[in-house]
């Protein structure tokens, strides 16, 4: 009897209608603090049974952080929509492609994912990541590869030696976007999510600190200060402020 009750309870939970949309902004540099925020946001949406809308506007960032976010999207137990507001470049393109459904604003763009430093091993790994992510959503993997590897040639779309970046219209024509939407509400309506409560998530204080510390400019500055401290400590007898 207990097992039957549990089965009914689980079934009712699984069939609970979606009533909420959780908007997770992916803005600025993609770093480990942002990765933690996105993963927490998706976990919260799963508990609430809400749709996730990733509002993306980024030039890119850390590959590690981008792949962590990509994995969280793929493993999500609730629907995830990528809404490219302006641009999704570099690691931002990988994040956008991980969602089964993609909307873009007019004039938006996606791609430009050539890694830095541009080493053969790195290019090969990231290219495979893009290809696998595109294939998983039924998109042309060669287009995804051309966003990463300048050696990939696709007729007039991606001449050899040029990294591919798609405009919103090109993405729509090539199956890399499902709709061009001026607003997030327009995007949600296209995918059948109308009349839902919209909640905009924000990073917590710990995630804000993590974003600040792992920012490429700040982390480089801290590393430089650390080296300078070591030099001053070596040059100065005894343990001092620099140490």
Task: Please tag this protein with its features.
243 residues, globular, eight-stranded mixed beta sheet, single chain, alpha/beta, 10 helices, disordered N terminus, 48% helix
Structure description:
With 243 residues, the protein is of the alpha/beta class. The protein is built from 10 helices and 8 strands. Strands 1, 2, 3, 4, 5, 6, 7 and 8 form an 8-stranded mixed β-sheet that branches. It is globular. The chain starts with a helix and ends in an 8-residue tail after the last helix.
Which sheet architecture does the biggest sheet show? Answer: 8 strands, mixed
Order of helices and strands: HEHEHEHEEHHEHEHEHH
Roughly what percent helix? 40-55%
Q: Beta-strand percentage?
A: 15-25%
Structural Rg? 21 Å
Number of strands: 8
Task: Give the number of helices.
Answer: 10
Low-pLDDT residue intervals, each spanning 5 or more residues: 1-14
What's the N-to-C terminus distance?
67 Å
**Overall shape:** globular
Assembly type of the shown chains? single chain
Counting helices, strands and paired strands, the structural category is: alpha/beta
Average of pLDDT: 86
């Amino acid at each position: 009897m207990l097992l039957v009750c549990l089965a009914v309870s689980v079934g009712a939970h699984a069939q609970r209608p979606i009533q909420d949309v959780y908007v997770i902004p992916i803005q600025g540099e993609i770093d480990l603090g942002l990765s933690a925020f996105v993963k927490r946001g998706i976990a919260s949406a799963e508990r609430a049974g809400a749709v996730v809308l990733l509002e993306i506007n980024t030039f890119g960032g850390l590959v590690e952080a981008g792949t962590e976010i990509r994995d969280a999207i793929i493993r999500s137990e609730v629907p995830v929509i990528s809404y490219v507001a302006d641009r999704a470049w570099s690691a931002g393109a990988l994040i956008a492609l991980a969602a089964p459904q993609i909307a873009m604003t007019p004039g938006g763009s996606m791609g430009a994912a050539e890694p830095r430093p541009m080493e053969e091993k790195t290019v090969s790994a990231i290219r495979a990541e893009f290809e696998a992510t595109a294939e998983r959503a039924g998109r042309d993997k060669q287009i995804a590869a051309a966003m990463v590897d300048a050696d990939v040639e696709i007729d007039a779309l991606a001449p050899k030696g040029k990294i591919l970046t798609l405009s919103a219209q090109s993405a729509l024509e090539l199956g890399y976007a499902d709709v061009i939407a001026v607003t997030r509400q327009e995007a949600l309506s296209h995918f059948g999510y109308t009349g839902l409560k919209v909640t905009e998530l924000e990073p917590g204080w710990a995630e804000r600190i993590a974003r600040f510390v792992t920012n490429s400019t700040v982390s480089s500055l801290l590393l430089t200060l650390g080296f300078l401290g070591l030099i001053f400590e070596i040059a100065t007898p005894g343990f001092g402020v620099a140490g």
